[in-house]
Amino acid sequence: MGDEAAEALFVLVRRVGVDNVSVIIAPRDFRHERANVEANPNPPWLPELYGNIGHELESFVRPN
């Protein structure tokens, strides 16, 4: 994400109000693809983190 995209996000947040914005940063959209953390040597907290991210994403409409 470059400066232009970041600036557009700042403008959008200003227009709708910071209380109306949620930001979720994830390596992929877990609504479309579940994380396969068991197959990889990951930190023990990763399954819980990815589960929390997936839960938060469920409230958003899936794009077609």
Walk me through this protein's architecture:
Helix content is 41%, strand content 0%. It is mainly α. It has a domain at 22-64. The longest helix has 14 residues, at 3-16. The radius of gyration is 15 Å and the shape is elongated. The two termini are 22 Å apart.
Secondary structure layout plus pairing:
Layout: H1 3-16, H2 46-57
> What share of residues is helical?
40-55%
**What is the general shape?**
elongated
End-to-end Cα distance: 22 Å
- The value of Rg in angstroms is 15 Å
Series of H and E elements: HH
Characterize the largest beta sheet: strand count, sense, and whether it forms a barrel: none
Work out the number of β strands.
0
Mean pLDDT: 81
Q: What structural class do you assign from the helix and strand content?
A: mainly alpha
Uncertain stretches: none
Number of helices: 2
As a percent range, the share of strand residues is: under 5%
Question: Which terms would index this structure?
Answer:
mainly alpha, 41% helix
Quick structural gist:
The chain has 64 residues and is mostly helical. The protein has helices at 3-16, 46-57.
